[in-house]
Write a structure and sequence with these properties.
globular; single chain; 10 helices; mainly alpha
Length: 199
């Protein structure tokens, strides 16, 4: 029963729609009616300015970290922690409060893996910055970085520091990457057609 509660709490924390709330508070609008239709930092920036976008980024990352830290505090079971991490990401992308229509999961994923796999996150962050700097496509950088986190976790275990919860962590990383790619399916279509927005 405790395990189920941990996962449900992680989902509910992840589902807090900070981007929606920030834009609603600042300009009284629904951020989902603008741009990509997501509640993440990039779309918030387009709708309510950079400061609102940065605030959303920090809050979305924080909720990912908090969800995982609560799970780690309550249980030492690596698999429960991994499921809670994925649940937080599901909560962000499919929040119950907004009819299961939320953001793309990138910032929340950053918060999650800042706790679970900081070295892999740092490596993925370098790739993200490089791709965005070269192409000016935030979506392409986000998708690539998400897909590479499981790879960097595996490489870290192989060449740097052994990861004691490797199977659970890899499972969470792969599931997280799949969710983020799915959430970016519209961006992928626009990237292929050449109509994706640049920063």
């Amino acid at each position: 029963m405790t395990r189920i509660i941990i996962v449900v709490v992680a989902y509910l924390i992840g589902s807090i729609p900070f981007g929606y709330l920030v834009v609603r508070r600042k300009i009284g609008a629904d951020v989902r009616q603008t741009g990509s239709g997501g509640t993440g930092a990039t779309n918030v920036s387009r709708r309510a300015g950079k400061a609102a976008g940065v605030l959303t980024l920090l809050l979305d990352a924080a909720k990912g970290s908090v969800a995982v830290l609560i799970a780690k505090t309550v249980t030492g079971d690596d698999w429960v922690i991994a499921v809670a991490a994925v649940a937080a990401l599901v909560g962000h992308i499919f929040p119950v409060w907004l009819g299961f229509r939320g953001g793309k999961g990138v910032a929340t994923g950053v918060g999650i893996f800042l706790v679970l796999a900081p070295i892999a996150l740092l490596c993925a962050g370098v790739v993200f910055v490089a791709i965005v700097a070269l192409t000016r496509y935030v979506s392409l950088g986000s998708i690539t970085a998400a897909v590479l986190i499981p790879v960097f976790v595996w490489l870290q275990n192989l060449f740097v520091v052994p990861v004691f919860d490797l199977q659970a962590l890899l499972t969470a990383a792969i599931a997280g990457a799949a969710l983020i790619v799915f959430a970016h399916r519209g961006n992928i279509q626009r990237l292929v057609s050449g109509t994706e927005s640049r920063i």
